[in-house]
Amino acid sequence: MPHTSVNMIRAHTKQALLLLLFAVVASSIPGDCKTGGIINLHDQLTQVRIFNFLGNGIRLTLHCKSKDDDLQEQVLGNLMDSWEFEFHPNVWGTTLFFCSFKWENEPTVWFDVYVASRDITVCGYICWWEIKTIGPCLIVSQGLQCFPWTAYESSLFSRSVVNQLQP
């Protein structure tokens, strides 16, 4: 009989530890303050806004896409004009939107304006970009975080594929 009591204590200890583990994990997930519920992070609407910071009178033409969505060509004709789009990130955390940018007689350049693995911790669900000749700059709490332009459609595009495309 003592052997059965030891097994019951072990079973209850395992259940208590699992319950404690669940409580710790659940408390680390952001909750909705009004309802006390758990927020599904992938249900969160994400906004990307792009501002023309090229200078007075410089017209910016951009065309943004994801694997599944073509957001069509947009034109920002004046300094500080903006355009935005919204979406729900996918559940795998792999959402990617990239854009081409063209102005005056400059060659077309590209940049990934939303990469889930980069942006969820940098800008969260509101990612605003200033487009400058030197590159796109993300507006963050500390000011601007600027990036270089990429030489092809997406910085996540396989370099081996790019090398196959070159003569």
Automatic annotation (TrEMBL):
Cleavable signal peptide: 1-28
Keyword Signal: yes
Location, primary (coarse class): secreted
Any GO BP annotation: rejection of self pollen
Family annotation (InterPro entries): Self-incomp_S1
Localisation: Secreted
Alphabetically ordered keywords of this record: Secreted, Self-incompatibility, Signal
GO cellular component annotations of the record: extracellular region
Family that this chain belongs to: Belongs to the plant self-incompatibility (S1) protein family.
Descriptive protein name: S-protein homolog
Organism phylogeny: Eukaryota, Viridiplantae, Streptophyta, Embryophyta, Tracheophyta
